[in-house]
Prior knowledge:
single chain, mainly alpha, 0% strand, globular, binds zinc ion
Amino acid sequence: VDRVLSSVQEFLVLGAIFAAIAIWQFGLENLQPTERQKRNWRLNLAYFAADILVFLPVIVWMAGGLRNGLGSVPIGLEFQKSLTQTLSPSLVLLLAIAVADFVGYWRHRLMHTRPLWPVHAAHHSDEDLTWFSLVRFHPFNRVISVFFDIALMSLLGFPVWAIVLSNRFRHYYGYFVHASFGWRFGPLRFIFVSPFFHRWHHAQDMDARDKNFATVFSLYDLVFGTFYCPKKSAENLGVDGEDYPASYIGQLFYPLKQWKCQLQSLVRRPAQRGAAPTK
Ligand SMILES: [Zn+2]
Ligand SMILES: [Zn+2]
């Protein structure tokens, strides 16, 4: 109950902050929501409610177990000893944020591969990107993120407090980069992810496909060749193609359906070898 209340509290505080900035930037009279925006907000609310009531308690419980199990792996303990003995706590935290964002970059790239895309598509399905779009993640996506991040960060020797704090920081920064402010950060755009930059990650344009994976440091995209930041703002957002479901339940079961299709085509393919192409 405490966790549900604090999630609702966080939602209200963040909502007030982002609403105040939006009113200041665009003016209240320009903030009349369209039908599509209302629909996307309702769907995000469904994700938020299901997460705090059903999925997050389970995921948090599993994450604690995983961390306890991995916290005693010798190599992790060795790393942790040298890390906490050589660096001050604030440097450990800075390093944790940088490393967690590196881990997150590659995990996000993995989510864009064919087998995992059906899970990740939910996050891309909001055509009206706002700060609140950050809540739109399939529960499988959350499980994969939490396990990937906690496992690697624990094995790399980061203490629990640094993992938790770096996760919090990236969580709030994530709200910020999904907001519709259009800030581009000038020359700093090559180091830090801006709302303008992450908006391009959600664009349907071919040039923007599989670009801008980082959450905090766009520097990773620059280094690994996935940096995309043209002058104009991204406009055509959402998931390409018409078969992606619009309802919460439809999106929840979408990965299972897609995996079934992918498996069937894998099984069928050898039998089709040598047959005339149908198209
Ligand atoms: Zn993505
Ligand atoms: Zn996003």
